[in-house]
Amino acid sequence: MTNDKLDEWLEIGKIVSPQGLSGEVRVYPDSDFPERFEVPGKRWLLRAGETQPQPIELLSGRYMDGKNLYILKLAGVETREQAEALRGCKLMVPASDRPELGEDEYHVLDLVGLSVFMQTSGELVGTVVDVIAAGNDLLEVEFDPLFATDKEQTQTTKEKPKKTVLIPFVKAIAPVVDLQSGRIEITPPPGLLEI
Fold first, then answer.
1. 3-94 placed in CATH 2.40.30.60
2. Do the Cβ atoms of 83 and 18 come closer than 8 Å?
3. Is the pLDDT of residue 160 over 60?
4. CA distances (Å), origin 169, targets 34, 53, 133, 188
5. Where are the extended beta strands (E) located within 1-111?
6. Partners of 140 in the beta sheet?
7. How far is 164 from 47, CA to CA, in rounded Å?
8. Rounded to whole angstroms, what are the CA distances from 42 to 39, 56, 60, 97, 100?
9. Distance of CA 115 to CAs 18, 26, 148, 178, 184, Å?
10. Residues 61-88 pLDDT 10s
11. Which residues contact 147 (CB under 8 A, 6 or more apart)?
12. What are the residue ranges of helices labelled H in the chain?
């Protein structure tokens, strides 16, 4: 799939298995918006190896407590075998279909790729490579080669794989998120950036 095509779509979840015998599927969500899985309407299905998602109708959906999964009923999927054939497919929506966000809410895709700086010194820490959903979201930040948390790291940067750190994405630690400038400023507690 080319990047141009990817830019047109947002992945909201992945079908991981069938649920029961009547064609329902289990979906691992990649969206913080439950309505994407609970409100009936048109979604798009991207099958492995295909470059263009195909429309599919969501008939119903419910959250499965304790599993972080949704159980969905999709139009035209009536049997366990049909549901099994969808394993690994991605559920998509058009990129233009972004829900409105409140203050201090961000789309994950807007955070990935932002530069992370120390608020006090302005020193570049690294780049956000992922956002991990947890009680509080965690920013996975790949250290910039020049940002050294210890002497050994600066001496052996070329031989070692790139290191990352998980930074809690809370206002106290990441008080400044500037999407226009492509930067996040952090005030980490002592020891957070040590490996």
1. yes
2. yes
3. no
4. 21, 32, 10, 11
5. 9-19, 24-29, 41-46, 54-64, 69-74, 90-94
6. 130, 166
7. 31
8. 10, 6, 11, 11, 19
9. 40, 35, 16, 10, 6
10. 999 888 889 999 999 999 999 999 999 9
11. 123, 124, 125, 126
12. 3-7, 35-38, 80-84, 108-111, 151-155
**What is the CATH class of 108-186?**
mainly beta
Residue with tokens 């994950």: 108
**Domains of the chain, residue spans:** 3-94, 108-186
Dump pLDDT digits (tens) for 76-125: 999 999 999 999 999 998 877 766 666 667 777 788 899 999 999 999 99
For residue 152, what pLDDT is reported? Answer: 46
Q: Please give the model's pTM, rounded to 2 decimal places.
A: 0.57
**Contact 143/166 with Cβ under 8 angstroms?**
no
H/E element, 131 = strand 124-132
